[in-house]
UniProtKB/TrEMBL annotation:
Reported function: This is one of the proteins that binds to the 5S RNA in the ribosome where it forms part of the central protuberance.
NCBIfam families the record matches: bL25_bact_ctc, PRK05618.2-1
CDD domains reported in the protein's UniProt record: Ribosomal_L25_TL5_CTC (cd00495)
UniProt name for this protein: Large ribosomal subunit protein bL25
SUPFAM superfamilies linked: Ribosomal protein L25-like
GO molecular function: 5S rRNA binding; structural constituent of ribosome
Organism, scientific name: Nocardia neocaledoniensis
Subunit-level organization: Part of the 50S ribosomal subunit; part of the 5S rRNA/L5/L18/L25 subcomplex. Contacts the 5S rRNA. Binds to the 5S rRNA independently of L5 and L18.
InterPro entries: Rbsml_bL25/Gln-tRNA_synth_N (IPR020056), Ribosomal_bL25/Gln-tRNA_synth (IPR011035), Ribosomal_bL25_b-dom (IPR020057), Ribosomal_bL25_C (IPR037121), Ribosomal_bL25_long (IPR001021), Ribosomal_L25_dom (IPR029751), Ribosomal_uL5_bac-type (IPR020930)
Keyword Ubl conjugation: no
Keywords from the named record: Ribonucleoprotein, Ribosomal protein, RNA-binding, rRNA-binding
Family: Belongs to the bacterial ribosomal protein bL25 family. CTC subfamily.
Length: 203
């Protein structure tokens, strides 16, 4: 088994909020490993090592867990990050097997410059795909190079890498290209907003 993203995992025997806090205080991340009809396994991962893997490979990173000397492939299914301190509070890990196809969301990255006088709006930041668990793309690129106003890029029209198929709604709007408003239109909009605000204050 490949040593890429290999990380040691210790089995947790204490549960609950207090136990989770102690795990984090010791520099580890509490995690749960589940899937393939196996009993959920409560683990702890080194926080720095796990964060480094996520920074490099994204939130769909495949892990080669070493638990009690045995190796197990797992996909990072979800990660809870503290909203203020930004440390990882908890992770859910999904057991995967070589050759298995999984459904997950990947980030959409818009590239290129649309035609002059246009405004590009990204309506969705992720795309639901199905692919080999060990060959998940970190992101999907959508090019708007030279695209004219009035163009709408739907999920079903996005070119996907070999072996990757769309798992979500093919009609979902991902990128919308519209005509950019003129300076005069923006000025009129600003004046209208100012007049409306003044009218409200005078009431």
């Amino acid at each position: 088994m490949s040593d890429v993203n290999q990380i040691e995992a210790a089995v947790r025997t204490e549960f609950g909020k207090g136990a989770a806090r102690r795990t984090r205080r010791d520099g580890n991340v509490p995690a749960v490993l589940y899937g393939h009809q196996a009993e959920p396994q409560h683990l702890s991962l080194n926080a720095k090592a796990f964060a480094a893997i996520l920074r490099t490979h994204g939130t769909n990173a495949i892990l080669n867990l070493v638990v009690d000397g045995k190796q197990q492939l797992a996909m990072t299914k979800s990660v809870v990050v503290h909203p203020i301190r930004r440390y990882i509070e908890h992770a859910d890990l999904l057991i995967v097997k070589r050759g298995e196809r999984v459904v997950t969301d990947v980030n959409v990255v818009v590239t290129g410059d649309a035609a002059a006088g246009t405004l590009v709006t990204q309506e969705a930041t992720t795309l639901s795909i199905e692919a080999d668990a060990l060959k998940l793309p970190e992101s999907i690129e959508v090019s708007v190079e030279g695209v004219e106003a009035g163009t709408q890029i739907l999920a079903g029209s996005i070119e996907l890498p070999a072996g990757v198929t769309l798992a979500g709604d093919a009609e979902a709007l991902i990128v919308n290209v519209i005509a950019a408003p003129s300076a005069a239109a923006l000025d009129e909009e600003g004046e209208g907003a100012a007049e409306a605000e003044a009218a409200e204050e005078s009431e």
